[in-house]
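In this section we walk through a basic example: taking a raw amino acid sequence and producing a predicted 3D structure, encoded as discrete structure tokens. The instruction is simple. Fold the sequence below.
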Amino acid sequence: MKKQLTKLSVSLLLMCSLPVFAQQQWCSGQVVNYIVYVNGDVMINPSFNSNWIRLCNLSTPGPNDPSTKVCSSWLSAVMIAKQAQSNIIVQYANTPACSTIPPYNDSPVPVYVGSYK
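The resulting token sequence is shown next.
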């Protein structure tokens, strides 16, 4: 009986210490600001998150980044959306919520970036 209680206690402890479950998110809103750094990082400050979020790198993509061609097209979509005051949509494969995406280089890499009216 004592062994079973120990196993149950350990199981409950592990379950309670697991991180919040993340899932696919489609984040949409307006581009408040965007910036391209000298190192090629493309960042946005979207209305769905109060942080600056890194989308990709135009010069030297990281291991999970899209190609420079894809990054360039994402930047074009962001610029067009900002100019037209339309919305962007950014899809993430594994993040808990759009409003809690971490800032800067801690941001997850999107699956896609698009714009819509």
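Looking at the output, two observations stand out. The chain is about 30% helix and 35% strand. The chain has a mean pLDDT of 86. In the next section we compare this with other chains.
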